[in-house]
Amino acid sequence: LHTQVCDMPKALTLNENLKAYGYTLRPQDIYALASSPSLDFFFENFVSLIPKVKAKPMYPDFPIEIMEMEEATFRFHQLLHYFSTYGIELLTGQEAQKGWLPEKEEIEKTKEDETLLTCKVIELIKASEMYSVLFKKIVSKKERLSITEKEMLEDVVKSMNPDTLSQTSIPFKENLMPIVYSIVKERKAVVPVLCELFQHTGDVLKCFDYFLVRNRYKVSKEEQCLFIQVLESYSIADFMNNVILSNRKANHTKVLLNYLNYNRYSKSPAHKEVVRALRNDELSSWYEKEDTMIFRWLVSNNLDVEKETLSFIGNRPGDMFRQLNYLYKLRFSTNSLFEEMGKHIASLSLETLVSTYSIFDSNAEVRELMHHILQEKMKTMHTPFQNKKVYMKNHEFVTIHQYSTIKRTLDENSS
Questions:
Q1: Residues 6+ positions from 94 with CB-CB distance below 8 Å
Q2: 146, 235, 257, 303: most buried, per Cβ within 10 A?
Q3: Inter-residue contact 365 to 337 (CB < 8 Å)
């Protein structure tokens, strides 16, 4: 059995060479690389990935030259360089040197300028884990993926085990769409795996909509049956609520179900009955049901009806939080509102709470209620700063309360 010898001096030398390109390894990765078979060819392979820039810089001693130069001269150099690069002959009819650059004598640097070159830290991973680690890093983003990241994601999915795909948390739900598309196209779509990725029927419909557009409205029988199986793995109540979120979305859902040939491939009579009722406009959207229950509460003014109404609205805590002022004006008590919202603190998004609270302009009682809900949410959060001493420069940002005071003052002065 061959055992790789630990060559720490060579690994340290390699890391010093990487710094010349603006990169460095973590200490634990230097040690891992020192005893890895990859040590001998790691540097050459890594440098080959760095794009080569052959063009001569306009200002070799940037930014010193720029700081000492008149802005008019700087702008003139830029114009002359761009015109000569892209064809000044078209404007003047005279031949000009391509890519004109000002004649500058490079100043020899005796000390390395550390402020201009901050090394990026490279994290090494095992070859057997590279696809799963890359997959988790990409989908863990809390914002929309870039085009490059989507392309990388599709390549990664091709080499991954389906079980690994379903064990990853995806905080930004729109990023679920390209993942599902890749899984289905690579024939890795086992129904239980997809069901673990989705939270409800609405996620399935959104991903199928994305799949349909991306696949140029061509769906095979196998793909149709797959999406229908996933849809019918959810309860009738979940299915019914999500196929008709609103009347406008209900019409779009009907189009999606037509592309799935739902009646032909469905194996659940109960789900098929919901689709029949949807197509015949016999279903009511969630918002229509909410309006009906609120009207019932206004007419009856009964505490049991109030509790039942708020319980129904509380099934969508984000919507309920946004409607607190509206519900308060309808004479729902603040205690009842706070009690119902308290049941759903864990499922509330902190981003939704903060953004809604920051822009909300209402009476003091409702703002106080929103503030208490936000406080309760913060108590459930676990952050890297928990139980640690943290230094914060308070003068560098404005708190929500400060924002309210400043805005009130400005409004009073303007009036």
A1: 88
A2: 257
A3: no
pLDDT level of residue 88 (50, 70, 90 thresholds): low
- Over 70: is that where the pLDDT of 112 sits? no
Q: Are the C-beta atoms of 186 and 158 separated by less than 8 Å?
A: yes
> pLDDT tens digit string along 379-412?
888 777 667 776 666 555 555 555 555 556 656 6
Report how far apart the first and last C-alpha atoms of the chain are (Å, whole number).
Answer: 84
Statement: residue 200 has pLDDT above 80: yes
pLDDT digits (tens, 9 = 90+) for 358-371: 777 667 888 889 98
pTM, entire model: 0.62
152 phi/psi in degrees, rounded to 5: -60, -40
pLDDT at 111 over 80: no
By CB neighbour count within 10 A (0-12 exposed, 13-18 middle, 19+ buried), where does 180 fall?
buried
For residue 39, how many other CB atoms are within 10 A of its CB? 18
The sign of the torsion formed by the CA atoms of 139, 145, 148, 153 equals positive
Report the 10 Å Cβ neighbour count for 11. Answer: 20
- How far apart are alpha carbons 317 and 343 in whole angstroms? 9
Q: Is the pLDDT of residue 92 over 70?
A: no
Angle (CA) 36 40 44, round 5°? 120
Peptide bond into 63 cis (omega under 30): yes
In 10 A of CB 121, how many CB atoms?
10
Q: Please write the tens of the pLDDT for every residue from 13-29.
A: 999 999 888 899 998 99
DSSP 185-238: HTT---HHHHHHH-SSHHHHHHHHHHHHHHTTT---HHHHHHHHHHHTTS-HHH
Q: Which amino acid appears at position 299 of this protein?
A: V
Distances (CA, A) of 407 to 115, 354, 368: 39, 17, 17
Taken as a whole, the chain contains a residue count of 415
